[in-house]
Amino acid sequence: MTVPARPLDLAAETGTGGVLLWVVLPYVALAVFVLGHVWRYRYDKFGWTTRSSQLYESRLLRIGSPLFHFGVLVVLLGHVGGLLVPKSWTEAAGVGEQTYHVTAVVLGTVAGVCTLGGLAVLVYRRRTVGPVFSATTRNDKAMYALLTATIVLGLAATAAANAVGGGYDYRETVSPWFRSIFLLRPDPALMAGAPVLFQLHALSALLLFTAWPFTRLVHMLTAPLGYLTRPYIVYRSRDTALGTRAPRRGWERTG
Length: 255
Description:
Layout: H1 11-43, H2 59-84, H3 87-92, H4 97-128, H5 130-134, H6 138-164, H7 174-182, H8 188-192, H9 196-211
Helix pairs in contact: 1-9, 2-4, 4-6, 6-9
């Protein structure tokens, strides 16, 4: 019977630095991510918002916001599929390595470029529109810098591995390492052998998730489900003329 190696058993192979980066840091980031959201929701409910600036400017927002949000949604779904779904599962489903690789690279690159383009528009808007810039905090600037670095490093890793290099199958190293964290059997040796750009992308993502609970990114984990069941809001008019048109449902006069 083979006993899974513990992190300390791998220290000789990956070094203390490897254990700190690929075992300790992920668990610290995960703990801060979860507990930080609990703390934020409990003590800062009114700050749990994106602090919308649409009132100040809407033209650039209509371009950058959908581009960024749809792009990042596809990127997140791609990462969930690539990191959580084992390679053996997709092969058992009839999806060959070549098909998966081409699909992942094409969709990932397009989604990454859309996300980065949308983010560039939003940052440009935030920098050039006076009222929006005045409402930008240091926290926002740090969040944008971390987000940009993570996206750029992800695109650079994809380009270096596929456009320049001969291709790299991250599902044999990065994905098993990611799953080993949640299975409580962390294997830092898997990430120690990954290309540098993939390592930097993973580290920037860990830092981003560590900062996540304390930024405006918290709004991505909420949905306005209460709107579906809340009662109608009663609006009272000062106009004494009733008019001839029948009021719509929910707009009836109350007296």
